[in-house]
Amino acid sequence: xxxxxxxxxxxxxxxxxxxxxxxxxxEALLDIANRHYIAVPERTPGEILLMWVGNRYSYxxxxxxxxxxxxxxxxxxxxxxxxxxxxxxADDHTMANAFMKKVRGTAAPAESLQQALL
Length: 118
Known about the structure:
By secondary structure, the protein is mostly helical. It has one domain (5-117). The protein has helices at 5-19, 23-36, 45-64, 68-81, 85-91, 93-104, 113-117. The longest helix has 20 residues, at 45-64.
């Protein structure tokens, strides 16, 4: 059973607030997503999360390098993906927990992930 989407949305906001436009933080999250992602033929929550942090990383590099084209392109990509991220976080406990551990410094036990996201 997945985590409630509203609480997963809170985690997405928390990740965004923590990383902001810091490319090093997005790079660390991208590394986490790459380690926890398992490729399958259909789009999975893990794939959505990998695309989200990958595009946020590229966006933060555009901000860091003051590259308007990257900011524009990746900003649009991120805006579209962030509509899918809360459900993906709610469904992928492993990656949600890994992000939580990176952002908060602690991981939530699987059975209390719902409470930890609140």
